[in-house]
Amino acid sequence: MAKTEKSFTRNFTDCLTCVQVLNLMVLLGFMLNYALRVNLTIAIVGMIFDEKDAQVVANLTDSFNVTEHPEHITQTRYHWDTKQKNHLLGCFFWGYVLTEVPGGRLAEVIGARRVFGYSTLLASILTLLSPGAAALGFGWIVALRVVLGFLLGATWPAILPMASKWIPPMDRSKFMSNMMASSLGAALTMPICGFLIAHFGWESAFYFTGIIGIMWSVAWFAVVYDSPAQHPRISDAERNHLMKALPQDSNKGHRPVPWRSLLTSAPVWAIVITHGASVFGYFTVVNQLPTYIESILNYSIKQNGLLSSLPYLGKYLCALASSVLADSLRRSGSLSTTTARKLFTALAVGLPGILMIAQAFFGHDRIWSIAIFTLALTINGAVTAGYLGNGLDIAPNFSGTIFGIANTLSSIGGWLSTFMVGELTKHENTYSQWQIVFFILSGTYVFGALVFTFLGSGELQPWNSPPSDNDKREEQPLNEQKA
Questions:
Q1: 465 φ/ψ angles, rounded to the nearest 5 degrees
Q2: Mutual orientation of helices 82-90 and 399-425 as an angle, nearest 10°?
Q3: What's the rounded Cα separation, in Å, for the pair 246 and 243?
Q4: Which residues touch 372 (CB under 8 Å, ≥6 apart)?
Q5: Do you know which InterPro entries this protein is assigned to (predicted)?
Q6: d(CA 34, CA 44)
Q7: Model-level pTM greater than 0.85?
Q8: What is the rounded CA–CA span in Å between residue 381 and residue 18?
């Protein structure tokens, strides 16, 4: 038995380094993270029934040629109105905002392996329970989504502390692009869930994503560790390379957060405000695009799932390409870290703002609308080379805390976006009402881009590593030490 395990370890490490394994697991982890989140946005179209949905049910039958399976027509559906629908989509963020800062700080203290792994595992189990919760009543499914948000809220800020221990500074933009695999997860989840819902009912979307989540969690704990020093199967060559490439903190334990310096830092607030503005727009599209495609553009659910996935696929590809380019330009000295972060943030957040104006005027046309949405979210993927990993530049020791603060604001914005759309469309779900949504998104995007352009920085902040008590004593004159 021992020989077999040793042989597997040797063959496995010959194929992939531990950093490559980490990149792969983080990429898959964020794909899953959004699969657990956005499954509801496509499933809810099949969960709700009212008078207007009678024709939608008929279209579903025609779209998939359902003739031998009448259960596809008579599956359980709920009489939730538009306000309840948006309430359900938005309640995820009630729990999400509570664990952003604690999740980032907890990862700095106990490590991202446990924070990210256990949060995803428990969220996957809850996802399997979603159909049962809906059957119990509207309040139960709302409560489950709140707890789901509570668990997943800790995952995003947890990854930055892990990057500070595993990824050399000039490779971090590329690593951060793994977080945008969430878009890739959404791109795959939308059409897969659309197919499953049409053939097996909306419950299958939750069962599928929940089972995949449990499988990933088992693999995560088997192959991922918090640092090279803790990994039992890392080669000596890779460990030594990483120890040399990454700054080693000589202080034992964990530094307390310098809250005053952090909260009065202009670069920190540049990250927080820009992240909030960018994600406000992103969440609005993530949560509302399937509804917009179905109710305004009049596509069937089969077409809905496919078309809803296009912007997310484009966003991930742009995130990967821009991150590789940014790291290359920084490594060659062509751009400073500050210039690179500002340039890519301006492109990633500013251009979607301009495109939302175009959407307000041309969004009634099917082709133009899908093209603009896809282009806007594709360009937004460049945030991985911009502000998204900027906390690692300015304060790697507290990058999880900074990201947690930023994601808390953006999460509140995510809830506000669903509330905004719900209030604007609850009486008149028309294109003229959606135009108001697009103008609001445009102003938010442009504001975020301008804030980072003026306040952002890529320089290491002095409060990241304040002098320790021993350093202070060494710097004191001898006569003062004796006194």
A1: -135, 75
A2: 180
A3: 5
A4: 355, 358, 359, 362, 363
A5: MFS, MFS_dom, MFS_Na/Anion_cotransporter, MFS_trans_sf
A6: 16
A7: no
A8: 26
